[in-house]
Amino acid sequence: MRQFDAYRKATVDTSDNVRLVSLLFDGAVNFLKVARGKMEQRDIAGKGIYLGKVTAIVGELNNSLDMEQGGEIARNLRRLYDFVLDRLLKANLKNDQGALNEAERVLETLRSGWKEMEMKQAAAHVPVARASMDAGMAIQA
């Protein structure tokens, strides 16, 4: 039974991390859309606040990469995050809608990948959760 508990804890920890990253991408995309609205309204302060929030999220995702264990995937993500950060800076400094669109496309693509991973993990855990409930019922009987 201890092995199952260790597996379940590892599964929950991994699921929580995938969910957390997925939520961070949700926040980044939503803040970017608000920043776009502020840019269109010529609200310079508001634009800066919301682009700052997107930048903070992408910066944190970038800083959390494990370059030693992540290998090529981590290197590719680092390049994408750096690209997004560059586009956000250009969008902020020059009110460049094109740069904002480029950043959004990359964030949306990454976001959809994390959402897919989240759904696959959720689907994989349903049978495990059901089996553990069945096992618990059998023990109680």
Distance between the ends = 17 Å
- Per DSSP E runs of 2 or more residues, the count of β-strands stands at 0
Whole-number mean pLDDT: 85
Q: How much of the polypeptide forms β-strand, as a percent range?
A: under 5%
Low-pLDDT residue intervals, each spanning 5 or more residues: 128-141
Please, how many helices? 4
Shape: globular
Q: Write down the CATH topology.
A: Four Helix Bundle (Hemerythrin (Met), subunit A)
CATH superfamily: Flagellar protein FliS
Number of domains: 1
What CATH architecture would you give?
A: Up-down Bundle
Level-1 CATH class name: Mainly Alpha
Category from helices, strands and their pairing = mainly alpha
Quick one: biggest sheet? none
Helix proportion:
over 70%
Q: What radius of gyration results from the CA coordinates?
A: 20 Å
Order of helices and strands: HHHH
Characterization of the model:
The structure is a single chain. The protein has a single domain, classed as Four Helix Bundle (Hemerythrin (Met), subunit A), CATH 1.20.120. By secondary structure, it is mostly helical. The longest helix is centred in the last third of the chain and has 44 residues. It is globular and about 45 Å long. It is built from 4 helices and no strands.
Summarize the structure.
This protein has 141 residues and is mostly helical. The chain has helices at 2-40, 44-63, 67-94, 97-140.
